[in-house]
Amino acid sequence: MPTPDAFQQYDEVKSLNKIILRFEYDGKVEWEAPFGAFYGLDWDKYRHWQSEFLGMTSGGYYSYFPMPFRDDAKVTLINKSDQAIPAVYGAITYQVLNEWDDDLTYFHVKYNPSEKTPIGKPYKLLEAKGCGHYAGCAVNMKCLEPVKLFGEPTTLGFLEGNLKIFVDDDKEDEPSLEYTGTEDYFMSGWFFNKGPFSALRHGLILKDEEAGLIAAYRFHDVDAVPFKKQMRVILHHGEFDEVKTEYSSTVYYYMKT
Fold first, then answer.
1. How far is CA 134 from the centre of its chain?
2. 31: helix, coil or strand?
3. pLDDT at residue 251 is higher than 70
4. What is the longest distance spanned by two Cα atoms in the chain?
5. What separation in angstroms does the CA of 99 have from each of 41, 57, 69, 108?
6. C-alpha–C-alpha distance, residues 216 and 222, integer Å
7. Smaller CB count within 10 Å for the chain: N or C?
8. DSSP H helical ranges for the chain
9. pTM higher than 0.90
10. Among 40, 43, 81, 47, CA closest to 63
11. What is the rounded CA–CA span in Å between residue 33 and residue 39?
C-alpha cells in the first residue's frame, strides 16, 4: 500500500501528459497518446467534465468508445515522468462476439502535440488515407498574441477561424463540411460567452480569457463523417490564419485495415 508521503510527492496534474496510453489490436493497429490529452486536456490542467464517450470525474477517468478487435488487444500505461506512480486502478470490460463482422473498423487516435501555427496556414488536425469515419476531436487552443476585433483587444481572436472537413475528392475550396467559426463547430457561439459546460457530444472544458486558453470537444456518432479514400480536417486560426496561436489536439476516428 503506498505511503501518504508518496501521494504528497506525486503531482497527478503534471503527470497527465507524461503517462502514455497505448492500445494495440490484432498486430495490425497501434496508437498511443498522452493520458491527459486522450481525455481532452493538454495544458497541465484538470477539469471535471462528462460526455457520452469520455470524461474526467473527481479523480477518475472513463472511456466508452467502442474498440472492436478480432483476436487480441493489449492496453499499456507507460510512465515517462521522473516520478513513480503510487497507485493505479482501472477496469476494462469487453464483450465476446460470435463472429467477426467485416464491416467493423478499428478505433484510432491521432495525437498532435503543441504546435505554434504559422501565419497564413491553417492548423491540421487529421489527414488519413483509407476507408473509415471521423468520430471527433478534443482541441486545446492558446493565444500567443492578442488582436483587435471590433476595435477592442481580445485573446480569443483565433476563434474566428472556420473548421473544415474534406472527404475523398473534395476540392480545396469546396469542403464537405465547414463551420463558420471555431466555437460554432463545438456547438456554441459568441466566443463561448456563457463559459464551460458538458453535453453528451460537445462541450467546453476550459475557458480562461485572461490567459487566452480554450479546451473543447466534439464527438460524432449519429452524425459520423464517413470517407472511402481519404479525409482531412483543418482549423483556421482567425478568419485568414492571421492570429498567432498554439494548438494541441487529439482526434478520434475509425479505419479499416
1. 12
2. strand
3. yes
4. 63
5. 37, 35, 11, 22
6. 19
7. N
8. 4-9, 12-15, 35-38, 182-185
9. yes
10. 40
11. 10
Where do the domains of the chain lie, and which CATH numbers do they carry?
4-255 (2.60.120.1390)
Summarised one tens digit per residue, pLDDT across range 46-96 is 888 999 999 998 888 999 999 999 999 999 999 998 888 888 889 999 999
Amino acid at 206: L
* Residue 202 · residue 187 · CB < 8 Å: yes
Residue tagged 496510453 (cell numbers): 21
Strand ranges (DSSP E) for the chain? 19-25, 29-34, 49-50, 54-57, 60-63, 73-79, 106-116, 123-129, 132-143, 147-149, 152-154, 163-167, 177-179, 197-198, 202-208, 213-219, 225-227, 230-235, 245-255
Which amino acid, residue 94? Y
Q: Which three cell numbers stand for residue 102?
A: 467485416
Residue with cell 480569457: 209
Q: Is 160 helix (H, G, I), strand (E, B) or coil?
A: helix
* In contact, 50 and 92? CB cutoff 8 Å: no
Kindly report the length of the chain.
257
Considering only CA atoms, which of 230, 213, 44, 49 is closest in space to residue 132?
230
Q: How far apart are CA 4 and CA 135, in angstroms?
A: 41
Q: The C-alpha cell of 67 is what?
A: 474498440
For 92, other C-beta atoms within 10 Å of its C-beta total: 8
